[in-house]
Specification:
This protein is an all-alpha fold. The protein is 69% helix and 0% strand. The radius of gyration is 21 Å and the shape is globular. It starts with 22 loop residues before the first helix and ends with a helix.
């Protein structure tokens, strides 16, 4: 006779979402598993490029191909006003595509990282956020590799980067915070709502056009710009990169501050939501 395991061995569904989360304890536990994060990231990188003929060159192909396509379309077929007189459109678009490719890759790979690691979820005890964070590290490695294309683009286009480009590392704060927060929300919710996995590519495609990746937004008032930056923290990141590296201006500190505040809020809410959903992830996945 087949004997089933007692249901009391599993957590009751009604308590999955009532877990009390201590932020210092959760962050401390995550830090204790930092070596596992690096191991997972290294494993995924090796698996991704091990049998690929072009290897890590694939990290360059996506942003470069998109940059070439947008350059041809928006300079020859349907010219677009970038509000950056004298700046080659190839540089303008590539500086937008670098952070956007990082963000979209994180959402695609990190968003499904829990589902793709179900065997480990059921056998290994660890904070579940190690899986999306490892995916984020992989995307960061690809972004660093793709950034070397700029070393070639500047001499090819005959344009020199400005000294104010040293402000660029500050723009990583809202970019990383917003990306991680969004990725944590998606990776946890997608376990419970599998349809989101099919909707995610469409959302990313729409996001490409509502974010000023290939164009400069025409914003007439400061209030609208601040609202735009709060709703989409990628806006001050992309515009800040172009202002500093290409135009030689300091970032718009007000817009950047609003975007940073919004991204940190997304990270905080995303982390708390993830930890609340964490207790049921292994059972549902």
């Amino acid at each position: 006779m087949r004997v089933s395991a007692p249901r009391s061995a599993e957590p009751r569904p009604e308590i999955w979402f009532r877990r009390r989360v201590s932020l210092p304890v959760a962050v401390g536990e995550l830090w204790d598993f930092r070596e596992l994060i690096l191991t997972l990231a290294e494993r995924d990188l090796r698996v991704r490029y091990k049998q690929a003929v072009l290897g890590i060159a694939w990290a360059l192909i996506t942003p470069v191909v998109m940059m070439l396509a947008f350059t041809v379309i928006f300079t020859k077929v349907a010219p677009v006003n970038t509000h950056t007189s004298g700046v080659p459109y190839a540089l303008f678009s590539y500086l937008g595509l670098l952070p956007w490719t990082f963000f979209s890759t994180c959402l695609q790979s990190g968003g499904t990282s829990l589902l793709s690691n179900v065997p480990l979820l059921n056998k290994l005890y660890c904070p579940r956020e190690v899986f999306p964070i490892a995916a984020m590290i992989d995307a960061a490695v690809d972004a660093v590799i793709a950034a070397f294309v700029l070393v070639l683009l500047f001499p090819i286009t005959g344009f020199a980067p400005k000294l104010e480009g040293l402000y660029a590392p500050l723009l990583l704060i809202p970019l990383l915070a917003f990306t991680l927060g969004t990725m944590l929300v998606i990776s946890a919710v997608i376990v419970y709502m599998r349809d989101l996995r099919l909707v995610l590519p469409l959302v990313i495609q729409v996001g490409l056009f509502v974010t000023p990746v290939i164009y400069s937004p025409v914003i007439k008032t400061k209030a609208v710009l601040l609202a735009y930056s709060f709703l989409n923290p990628l806006v001050p990141v992309l515009e800040g990169l172009r202002r500093t590296v290409l135009l030689g201006h300091a970032p718009d500190w007000t817009s950047l501050g609003v975007g940073t505040l919004s991204s940190l809020l997304v990270l905080f809410v995303g982390f708390i939501l993830f930890k609340r959903l964490e207790t049921g992830i292994a059972d549902v996945a």
